[in-house]
Amino acid sequence: MKNVRDLMKDLRGNQTQQKTAGEMHVARETISRYETGKDKVNVDVANKYSKKYDDPCFAMTVQNEYTGTGPVWLDGPNADLHRSAIKEKTLEELEEAFSRLKETGLSKPLSNLQPFELQEVHEALEELVEAETAISQFIAVVCMETGISYRGLWMDHYRYLISQGFLKED
Predict the structure, then answer these.
(1) Angle between helices 83-103 and 115-146 (to 10 degrees)
(2) Structure pTM?
(3) Which CATH number is 4-67's, of 1.10.260, 2.40.50, 2.60.420, 3.40.50?
């Protein structure tokens, strides 16, 4: 699984740590400590990297590394990151999640579920997590291949949520 420190090095490419440090408004030694894993990247620097590079893999990896949750960048031997393969996998996972969720009874208080009902809910949530991973991969790959801003998509989405009253404006 990818980690933040390796992705920072990859994103920096041939640019020196000194130049990157200047752009991030930190000391060169700080970049070195992040890239060697001696220190965890702070939120401000992770945000600056996200803005500068607009890299979906970096964004997903930061979320996973810092919270231990959320979709991860698929890089195993069975991961097929071709946009057509991901599209098909996403549709498959969405159909499975939709079907499982539709079959799951949630009308009574969840605290009163019987063990078999709780198992059904758990299985529905697992299908939804699989669908979320597929969706995240699909969005990331299509953004990377088309040049559509991953960060921009999320910023537009947050503005929409605010406009609809689902999020408070900061």
Answers:
(1) 160
(2) 0.91
(3) 1.10.260
